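Lab meeting, item 3. Inverse folding demo.
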């Protein structure tokens, strides 16, 4: 199958072809772990999870690396503010991040490197840059000299003259040029630091990713992803320093950037104070609903978060209802198709995802399949469409639970009525109906409805679902 992706570097959609036939290397900028992740942090995690699932259908070997930034000024500030050791803080929130995105159906990466585990590689890269005339030491700092790279600005499409001096980079007297950025900086005793040829210090943010990529994926990789807010300066700086270490060869062949999640007043970010955490949302919503909401917008587009959850829940329930109505008792889920051959997957879903990961179109194809399941006039046709629906669910990371379990398990309130209590009330209602005590039967139905439980009477008995 032919996969096309929008390459930020060229500014256009390109056919994807890996550098090494049959093998794909992909790196995604992960979180800086100093607090709970907000739902905007889940956008790249979910989008690239779908991309990796798709790539693994076509290529025998896909190596996916997603890093953890565990040494950073934000972590230092949080440690000082809370009085907690910085390493303990980073360890805790790295685990919280993994738990949160796992609840959204995100498969773990093949490698999850941490910046603090790559100090030797970082120092080695910096020494190479200094030897090549691309970096210099000044007052305990080592800085990348931006004018030494004639291609600087090619990713973000900015000329040196157009760039704002000091954009997320400190303007300081020890710099030869205001645009020069830090590769290494000195650490005071209370801050984390490592011995280096330039004294005790710690790495700058940009060099961390370059070193981790080189260590785990090599000097040139196929795909590098992250939020569009990282294009400049983080990815521009990362590209420049890696290119100079590579003696002019670009380190990334396809740059992919996801759009920002908004709350109606700009992008969601901790600095703006308009965030909602994944953890908070998971306390009120099923993880698949959150994932569906994120997939309902194209990964490169801006998504208005407040308007998407209610619709996502209704749409996901439509897909699950098609499975519930045709369940033969096997309780089969999308997980059954994790290792299925490519011909098992619905062509319309595949076509949408191969077109620059068009998840809204893929979800529309899923609903067309669900409609076909409901309309099928023979068991074999329903079975085939149901199988395709589940296979498509695997690619998108949804439909991961038995349908009955999904409808009975979505309890969004802390005081939600327990399944055993619901079943007991249904039995009491059935007994009342048998005794022709319809007033009591109706009262039980109303009681359950008030608790958010909808009853569905059918030939095979009474089913229930949370609304």
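The presenter then showed the designed sequence:
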């Amino acid at each position: 199958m032919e996969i096309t992706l929008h390459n930020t570097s060229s500014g256009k959609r390109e056919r994807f072809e890996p550098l090494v036939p049959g093998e794909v290397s992909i790196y995604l900028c992960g979180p800086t772990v100093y607090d709970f992740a907000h739902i905007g942090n889940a956008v790249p995690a979910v989008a690239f999870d779908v991309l990796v699932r798709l790539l693994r259908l076509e290529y025998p070997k896909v190596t996916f690396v997603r890093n953890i930034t565990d040494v950073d000024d934000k972590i230092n500030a949080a440690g000082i503010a809370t009085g907690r050791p910085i390493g303990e803080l980073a360890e805790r929130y790295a685990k919280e991040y993994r738990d949160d995105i796992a609840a959204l159906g995100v498969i773990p990466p093949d490698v999850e490197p941490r910046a603090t585990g790559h100090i030797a590689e970082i120092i080695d890269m910096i020494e190479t840059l200094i030897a090549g005339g691309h970096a210099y030491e000044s007052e305990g700092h080592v800085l990348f000299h931006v004018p030494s790279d004639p291609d600087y600005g090619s990713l973000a499409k900015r000329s040196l003259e157009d760039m704002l001096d000091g954009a997320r980079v400190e303007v300081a007297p020890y710099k030869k040029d205001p645009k020069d950025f830090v590769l290494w900086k000195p650490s005071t005793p209370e801050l984390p630091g490592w011995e280096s040829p330039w004294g005790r210090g710690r790495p700058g943010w940009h060099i961390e990713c370059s070193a981790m990529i080189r260590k785990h994926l090599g000097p040139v990789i196929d795909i590098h992803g992250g939020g569009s807010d990282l294009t400049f300066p983080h990815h521009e700086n990362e590209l420049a320093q890696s290119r100079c270490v590579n003696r002019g060869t670009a380190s990334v062949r396809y740059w992919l950037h996801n759009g920002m999640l908004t709350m109606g007043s700009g992008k969601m970010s901790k600095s703006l104070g308009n965030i909602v955490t994944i953890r908070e949302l998971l306390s009120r919503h099923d993880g698949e609903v959150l994932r569906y909401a994120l997939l309902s917008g194209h990964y490169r587009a801006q998504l208005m978060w407040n308007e998407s959850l209610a619709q996502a829940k209704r749409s996901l329930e439509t897909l699950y209802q098609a499975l519930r109505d045709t369940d033969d008792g096997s309780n089969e889920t999308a997980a059954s198709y994790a290792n299925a051959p490519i011909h098992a997957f619905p062509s319309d879903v595949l076509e949408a995802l191969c077109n620059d990961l068009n998840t809204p179109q893929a979800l529309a194809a899923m609903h067309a399949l669900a409609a076909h399941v409901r309309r099928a006039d023979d068991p074999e046709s329903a079975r085939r469409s149901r199988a395709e629906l589940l296979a498509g669910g695997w690619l998108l990371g949804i439909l991961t639970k038995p349908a009955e379990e999904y409808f009975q398990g979505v309890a969004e309130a802390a005081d939600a009525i327990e399944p055993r209590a619901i079943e007991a009330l249904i039995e009491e209602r059935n007994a009342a109906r048998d005794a022709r005590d319809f007033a009591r039967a109706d009262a039980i139905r109303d009681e359950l409805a008030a608790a958010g439980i909808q009853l569905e009477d059918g030939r095979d008995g009474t089913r229930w679902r949370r609304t």
